Amino acid sequence: MKILLVIIGGFLLLLVAMALLGKHNMEDLHRLSADKALAEQKAKDDTQKTLEGPSGTGVRKQCAEKLERSFLDKGIDAHVQAVGKLGNTLSIKWILMSRPFGYKIMNDGDFPESMHACGFKKVHFTNGSEWWDYGL
User: Fold this and answer.
1) 134 strand-pairing partners
2) How many CB atoms within 10 Å of residue 118?
3) 10 Å Cβ neighbour count for 125?
4) pLDDT tens-digit map of 60-116
5) What is the C-alpha separation between 19 and 13, in angstroms, rounded?
6) Which strand (E) or helix (H) includes residue 116?
7) Model confidence over 2-53: pLDDT tens digits?
8) Rounded CA gap, 93 and 71, in Å?
9) CA quadruple 51, 56, 61, 66: dihedral positive or negative?
10) What burial letters (b/e) apply to 49-82, b meaning 16+ CB within 10 Å?
11) pTM value?
12) 126 phi and psi, to 5 degrees?
């Protein structure tokens, strides 16, 4: 009978230990998930700061050059540049630029999102005598 009590006691002790261990493992898992989410958010914030800061100027210039080539591929002789102190304004100069054309670019497709992803804050459309600015 004593042996049976010892076995049952040991079994109960094992169950309690497993429950506690499982609880700690779940807490660790939740903590790791929260830590991972914070780390991912920090990396995203750091990337955005890099794009918005001086070191992102090169990325914005590359985006502008790629956009200019895209316009040329479509037969549009537009000059595209990253301008401003930090290069965070996208300037698109085309002799045939008009308010409706700028509006169409800004409201069709994913142009605003992709330019914002490059780190641009504003798009400046001009035909040389008139201009239209849009925030991103």
Assistant:
1) 123
2) 21
3) 23
4) 999 999 999 999 999 999 999 999 988 999 999 999 999 999 999 999 889 999 999
5) 10
6) helix 111-117
7) 564 555 555 555 555 555 555 555 555 455 555 665 556 655 655 555 555 5
8) 11
9) negative
10) eebeeeebbebbeebbeebbeeeeeeeeebebbb
11) 0.61
12) -150, 155
- Output Rg (C-alpha) for the chain, integer angstroms: 29
The full set of domain ranges for the chain reads 2-52, 56-135
CB-based burial of residue 112 (10 Å sphere; 0-12 exposed, 13-18 middle, 19+ buried)?
Answer: middle
| Sign of the alpha-carbon torsion through 117, 68, 102, 57 | positive
The token pair that represents 8 in the structure block: 């049952």
Tokens of 19: 């429950």
Token digits of residue 38: 């914070």
Residues 6+ apart with CB under 8 A from 123: 89, 90, 92, 102, 105, 106, 112, 115, 133, 134, 136
3-state secondary structure of 7: helix
The pair of structure tokens assigned to 28 is: 């660790």
Q: Which two tokens stand for residue 16?
A: 């309690």
